[in-house]
Design a protein that fits this description.
Blueprint: H1 15-19, E1 24-31, E2 36-43, E3 51-58, E4 62-67, E5 75-83, E6 86-87, E7 93-97, E8 102-108, E9 116-118, H2 121-149, H3 157-177, H4 182-191, H5 196-204, H6 208-212, H7 214-229, E10 239-241, E11 247-249, E12 257-263, H8 268-272, H9 274-284, E13 289-295, H10 302-316, E14 321-324, H11 334-337, E15 345-349, E16 355-359, H12 371-380, H13 383-386
Helix pairs in contact: 2-3, 3-4, 4-7, 5-7
Length: 387
């Protein structure tokens, strides 16, 4: 499953436009909620890059949200709950809306992500998808919560990764089987870990309406960007601080194979793959492989992000170079430089500084295979010889 990091631009929706009958309405009634605030986000369809942010209060689980989309096409609204000024740690509620819609939401805040959304055909299609993944998602979230509370954070990660793989396959199959659903384009554009060639093949089968929609356009751009940031492209250079505050300059590693590991302390699948990544590093570091971990944290402050990052590195016992992308991100956003929109993502560079491949994870243990493991074996020799 994919987790997305984007620059946020605060834009309040136009109430005037709604009063003129051009907007949409979302009315919700959710049990077991109490009082709080709904923070609402969606992509501005005119650019697909800027994020519109807004909010509305809820009382005893009831709320009404009126706004105007600055273009007459469906967009994906994301609702996050806040109580007493703090975010509720639960997956958000998502729905498709367009101007003119009257959307209703019913259900419970105990199962916020899967509240019943009605009001247009796009949500009917989205509901079909949600029903397919509900049991898997619920089980995975429960496992992630148990992992956070565990005294041994390494326990349960293999199971979590296995669950994530099963879920990814179900979502991918759904996108293939529903080429006329907008949610299929959304999955490929921002959620699924999908090889570029496979994503291109699925995109080619989408209906014209889906291709022309917001997420169809985003997917098309993503496929075009893969050509710029994919195999054979020259890697951008960067300078970041390591955990000791010393500069790490990618250019200094020319002549070595370098694996850029984009991860975060919050990313269950990222951390589930760390034991196997440590295994690969131990086998190949003497044969010219270096790993640079590039953490992307979600702390509200740089200090919070640093604390989460350092704690995870210590817990997982990661022996390679580590940098925090959040630090001096305005000077060098490495995630953006390499067009990374999903975690985990690993990018292997050759001694000439060119990209050899992009990978969405590693296998979890000895004897398991994935594309990265096979590529390192091909380049640097078998694991048996390397050991």
């Amino acid at each position: 499953m994919k987790i997305i990091l984007m620059a946020m631009v605060t834009t309040l929706a136009s109430v005037t436009g709604f009063a003129q009958g051009n907007g949409f309405t979302v009315k919700g009634r959710l049990a077991d909620c109490g009082d709080g605030k709904m923070m609402i986000m969606y992509r501005d369809p005119r650019t697909n890059d800027q994020i519109v942010r807004d909010s509305t209060d809820y009382r005893d689980g009831s709320f009404t949200y009126n706004a105007v989309i600055p273009d007459n096409e469906p967009v994906l609204l994301v609702f996050n709950r806040f109580q007493q000024g703090a975010a509720v740690q639960a997956p958000p509620l998502r729905m498709f809306v367009k101007n003119g819609d009257a959307i209703t939401v019913t259900g419970s805040c105990d199962n916020f992500e899967f509240a019943d959304v009605k009001g247009n055909v796009y949500n009917d299609q989205f509901n079909e998808f949600k029903a397919l993944i509900k049991d898997d998602r619920t089980a995975m979230i429960h496992s992630m919560q148990e992992l956070r509370l565990s005294q041994d954070p390494t326990q349960g990660r293999e199971q979590l990764q296995s669950m994530a793989n099963v879920l990814n396959e179900k979502e991918l199959a759904f996108a293939k089987q529903h080429p006329g659903y907008m949610v299929s384009a959304m999955l490929l554009a921002i959620e699924l870990n999908t090889a570029p060639q496979e994503a291109a093949e699925i995109y080619a089968g989408f209906t014209p309406g889906v291709k022309q929609g917001q997420y169809g356009r985003m997917l098309q751009k993503k496929l075009e960007d893969n050509k710029k940031f994919g195999e054979g492209a020259i890697a951008a250079t960067f300078v970041k601080k390591d955990m000791a505050g010393k500069d790490v300059n990618l250019a200094a590693y020319k002549g070595k194979y370098v694996l850029l590991d984009f991860w975060g302390s919050w990313c269950g699948p990222c951390r589930a793959g760390n034991p196997h990544l440590k295994e690969l590093y131990a086998k190949y570091k003497g044969k010219g492989l270096e790993i640079i971990g590039i953490a992307n944290e979600n702390g509200s402050t740089l200090a919070e992000s640093k604390a989460s990052w350092k704690k995870a590195v210590k817990e997982d016992g990661l022996p390679w170079i580590q940098v925090l992308n959040n630090e001096d991100v305005e000077k060098a956003d490495v995630r953006e430089m390499f067009n990374v929109n999903a975690f985990p993502t690993k990018i292997l560079l050759g001694p000439d500084g060119k990209i050899i491949g992009r990978y969405t994870g590693t296998a979890l243990g000895a004897g398991q295979k994935d594309d990265l493991t096979e590529k390192l074996k091909e380049i640097l020799g078998t694991m048996e010889k390397a050991s």
